[in-house]
Write a structure and sequence with these properties.
alpha/beta; 3 strands; 11% strand; elongated
Length: 87
């Protein structure tokens, strides 16, 4: 897996294991999106070593989580409107 990740320009981690993706796996200049959340407020990417190599990286908490919540709320409202015949 580390060989595949080290070739990627964009890495999206959603493994469900804290600090699974290691910093030395990250290609210099890659963009890293950590969509994982684990006990202790840590993501699936070992943040500090990965941030040293990445051009951009999302933090945990506060990265993709707010966007995920906003999208779920939007989809819930859309589903309710459809059920009620409002759309």
């Amino acid at each position: 897996l580390d060989e595949i990740v080290s070739q990627a320009d964009i890495v999206v981690a959603a493994v469900g294991r804290a600090n699974f993706v290691q910093g030395d796996w990250i290609k210099d200049g890659a963009v890293v999106m950590d969509a994982g959340y684990n006990e202790g407020n840590v993501g699936d990417v070992d943040f500090e070593p990965a941030a040293a190599k990445a051009s951009l990286i999302t933090p945990v908490p506060g990265g993709v989580g707010p966007m995920t919540i906003a999208t779920l709320i939007e989809q819930t409202v859309t589903a309710a409107e459809r059920q009620l015949g409002l759309t």
